[in-house]
Amino acid sequence: MTDQRYLKRTIVKDSVVSQILPEGERDLRIFLPPGYNEVLSYPVLFCQDGEDFFNFGRVATIANQLILDEGMEPFIIVGVDVDKKKRTSEYAPDGERHDGYVTFFAEELLPYIESRYPVRREVQHRVLAGDSLGGTVSLHIALRYPNLFNRIISLSGAFYPASQEITAQSGRADYMSLFMIVGLQETAFETDTGTYNFVELNRAMKQLLEEKGASIQYGEHEGKHVWGFWQKHIPASLKAFFQAEV
Description:
Blueprint: H1 4-7, E1 10-17, E2 25-32, E3 44-47, H2 50-55, H3 59-69, E4 76-80, H4 87-91, H5 98-116, E5 126-131, H6 133-144, E6 151-155, H7 161-169, E7 177-183, E8 189-191, E9 194-196, H8 198-211, E10 215-221, H9 227-242
Parallel strand pairs: 3-4, 3-5, 5-6, 6-7, 7-10
Antiparallel strand pairs: 1-2, 2-4, 8-9
């Protein structure tokens, strides 16, 4: 049974106005950690598919548990919602809305969060997280804005050929640190653009990034392309980047 302390979460609904996105704004959900104090400053986790990370990934509950019981340094979570009908267009690097979304993320969302919440401004205190295409767009945001983002949690990243080609043509990635997992049962996953072997895609991307100098914590585990698998590995992914230094 889940400890009731973990369920006492402070989650604020917010939205950021955008001059870039056609809709003119984007909904957010913000997790404020136990003991939150505006006088302090906090690392920040940005989650693509914000609604799913909170509802299916239970990222806020897991963060509470790690902060309260395992001594993890408190951090803020920014869940960035997405319209599922436009998700592929925004998250896939060859999608028609992709460039706009990446620009919005770095040039509108990040400044908004920094103006409203006491998050740290140093690049090492920002982490991007995403599942499937959310992992893909997180990587491409970091490739486009290496001075702003260099830490990535990728849960079964959808690293299709277009993504691998862009990565292959990019420069060094020795500034980048990634936590990557993929499920061993993800060898024939059907998507709206075809059927893919996610194990092979992730192995290929891992090799590409390592050749460019990236630091990668990589794992292949029993699991399918579903939140039930990813949720189990969220604690380890958070520990990879937010574990307090002894």
